[in-house]
Amino acid sequence: MNRFQGKIVLVTGGNRNTGLSIVKKFCDEGAKVYMCGSSTASTQKGSDILASWGCKNITSIPCDVSDIEQVKNMFDIIEKDAGRLDILVNNAAHQGIGKPFTEMDPSYLMEVLGVNVRGGFQVTQQAVNRFFLKQKERGVVVFLSSNTAMRAIRNRTAYCASKGAINSMVKALALDLGPLGIRVNACAPGYIYTERWDVLPEETKQRRRLNCPLRHEATGMDIANVVAFLASEDSANMTGEIITCDAGCSCQHMPEDTDF
Ligand SMILES: NC(=O)c1ccc[n+]([C@@H]2O[C@H](COP(=O)([O-])OP(=O)(O)OC[C@H]3O[C@@H](n4cnc5c(N)ncnc54)[C@H](OP(=O)(O)O)[C@@H]3O)[C@@H](O)[C@H]2O)c1
After folding, report:
1. Alpha carbon of 84 to ligand 1 centroid (Å)
2. What is the Å distance from ligand 1's center to 39 Cα?
3. 257 lies in a domain?
């Protein structure tokens, strides 16, 4: 398929794990892709990986999405370079790992929300105001949410809250921007194989897989395929949707080995 031939795409957090697959997907289907990581070093590392995969037509721009000045700078570069934007993928995320609620300083909550909610908000606002509303062919926004917005995981209060906020923001944006010709949807993954799985004991990996009715976590490309669908004309009549892609995890009340 070549659904994105000639399209200009921005993927935040495109330098690592799932973001790399999303960038590759758009690249493979003909797009010119801009991607950012939070720092110069991490962005360059992602750029090198994509080059080693043979991906062409990619420009990487370091940008901390929680910092409005850096966000504006990223859009200045896209404006000067491409002069338009067709698709925005808000993938960047602060994972909010390692602080149980009882020990969590409220400032940590704001740090996580700063990347996941404020970041998505201000990147989307720049895309809409600077590009989409000025273009005859408007634009599409896809957020990466999480099934943990609906069914929480332990010791991740800030992260789960941020993904719940993203789901609500997607619906609110769909209402505000739909009449202007702009669609906003989200993909809500469950387990995705990332570098964080590499260090897990095999037993833990298998236990997680047992928790999935389909018996396997997603690959980055499984998620990229859903994102591409939501960004393409194949989903032309959809907005405000949260599409879960979690191997069926959200369907079950209890994992199989506790269900007697
Ligand atoms: N992995 C899963 O099992 C899972 C499950 C459900 C939902 N999701 C969601 O799917 C998306 C991708 O997940 P993932 O596991 O691949 O993510 P990840 O490995 O944690 O990578 C996060 C990405 O976001 C970037 N990022 C973090 N803070 C940033 C900031 N302030 N400004 C700009 N970029 C920033 C990171 O860049 P740096 O390298 O510079 O830090 C990195 O590229 C996320 O939205 C995540 O919440 C993941």
Report:
1. 25
2. 13
3. no
CATH of the domain at 106: 3.40.50.720
> What does the pLDDT look like over 155-188, one tens digit per residue?
999 999 999 999 999 999 999 999 999 999 999 9
Give the predicted TM-score (pTM) of the model.
Answer: 0.98
70 CB near ligand 1 (under 6 Å): no
Sign of CA dihedral 240, 34, 131, 70: positive
* CA-derived radius of gyration, the chain: 18
User: In DSSP terms, which residues pair with 141 in a beta bridge?
Assistant: 88, 184
The span from the CA of 253 to the CA of 144, in Å, is 24
Is residue 98's pLDDT more than 90?
no
Dist. CA 199 → ligand 1 center (Å): 17
Bridge partner residues of 9 (DSSP): 33, 87
- Closest CA to ligand 1's atom 46: 93
| Within a domain: 56 | yes
Number of domains the chain is built from: 1
* Structural domain includes residue 248: no
Range of the domain at 125: 8-243
For ligand 1, whether the C-beta of 42 sits within 6 Å is: yes
Pocket test for ligand 1, best of 23, 38, 243 (most atoms within 8 A of CB): 38
CB of 21 closer than 6 angstroms to any ligand 1 atom: no
**Residue 255 falls within a domain, yes or no?**
no
Atom of ligand 1 minimally distant from the CA of 62? 33
Rounded Cα gap, residues 105 and 147, in angstroms? 25
Measured from the CB, is residue 116 less than 6 Å from ligand 1? no
Q: Do 230 and 187 meet the contact criterion of CB atoms below 8 Å apart?
A: yes
Q: In this structure, which residue's CA is closest to atom 26 in ligand 1? A: 92
Distance separating alpha carbons of residues 81 and 103, to the nearest angstrom? 45
